[in-house]
Amino acid sequence: MNDKGSSSVESVMKVNAPSTWGIQAISFAVWILICLKVAYESLVLMNVATLDKFLYEVYLYYNPVFLMSAMVWLWGVNVYVFLTMRFPYARVFELDPNHVSHQEIWKIASWMTVAVITSMTAYLYLYSHGMVSMAASQPVLLYLMVPLMLGLPLDMFYMNTRFYFLRTLVRLTFPIQPISFADFFVADVLTSMAKVLSDVERSACRMYHRQVATVAWLNANDTCGGHSIYIPIVLAYPYLSRLLQCLRQYHDTKDKSCLFNALKYTTTFPVIFISALKYHVELPYWFSTLRPLWVLCAILNSCYSFWWDITKDWDLGWMSGPWKPVKQSLRPTLMYNQPWVYYWAIGSNMVLRAAWTYKLSAHLRHNFKTVFLFSFLEMLRRFQWIFFRVEIAALKLSSSTASNPLSRVTSIPLKDIDSETEHLLSGLNHDV
């Protein structure tokens, strides 16, 4: 009787799920439009002479959290594609069977987006109406809310997922244990968000020194200014984490390719720190010595990283060996079927790898609009990279399962994987 009753409830939920999502999507769109209207009206009231300077400050506080929200949206798209193509991504990441679906990831992203847009609108409205102290509290409250929500010790708001993410952040910060796929995967994603992390540091610094909604940021040599030594340190943090992970992997496996991967991340540090030196040396010395050295390091890192993406992370043979038939010039097994997808990924990755240097270089970050564009393009490159990196992990998992008789006995049957995929695509709520 209980089974029958639960089946009825599940059927009702499945029927109502699309309509519920439709109502939520409409509500989300309406609220965003209202916020944008209020924000535009607030900007109209401001002094035109100082508008660009004020917009830079708005960018500084809200650009990091907005891009974080965008990355969650993109991750939801990744998961949707993995599920529809029957990728065993849950096994790749060693996730609980009730892990969050793509719809729940988009739900989290929508709430993050609403929080960011609402806070920014309140900031603009209050500042334009002369309530500066209340305006200054808006980004502070937003930045306090993020860690509080992540660490909330209550069985709500996907507690297991939040804690899984926090544990991964701790492990990648202190890589003293064997490295899992999730550990280096998250660290790789953070390398694409290095500029976001440096903006978080600058914003937190200004909040600590009570410089929110002021013009103190105009002095680049200020404690929280654009010439701060902490900026390159924070930019380097994700790459240092990946470097240490590679060394740990070499310690565990004795695989020399881990050392070559570590070398790739090592080539990032000269790009970051030589660029930052521009504001701490004489200009003639910068143009005569450091700038050519920076260009050389940037080219080396971009080429090395591009080669590693294609040949190692994606395991595509396009850059090595003689010419072969179309599919064989990439790799024998292509889970996305269409070869042109892979050639598009190779070409776009090459272009965006070159653009990557822009956002890491302090001496190029004069126009915040351009920096925002390049930061977002790097996130799109990482979003694309994820598809092929998880594809390779899934192929290796399938290969190891097929070659190990014990794994074949203990592996999940295909029908169970299919039923799990259908369960996740159904749009029902999950706890993890």
TrEMBL record:
Please report the record's description of how this protein sits within the membrane.
Multi-pass membrane protein
* Transmembrane helix in keyword set: yes
- Membrane-crossing ranges are 21-40, 60-83, 108-128, 140-158
Q: Which UniProt keywords apply?
A: Membrane, Transmembrane, Transmembrane helix
- Which residues does the UniProt record annotate as the domain EXS? 222-424
In Pfam terms, one family for this protein is EXS
Gene Ontology, cellular component aspect: membrane
**Would the keyword Transmembrane turn up in this protein's UniProt record?**
yes
Question: Principal localization?
Answer: membrane
Q: Where in the cell is it found?
A: Membrane
Matching InterPro entries: EXS_C (IPR004342)
Q: What is this protein called?
A: EXS domain-containing protein
The record's gene field reads: LOC112292837
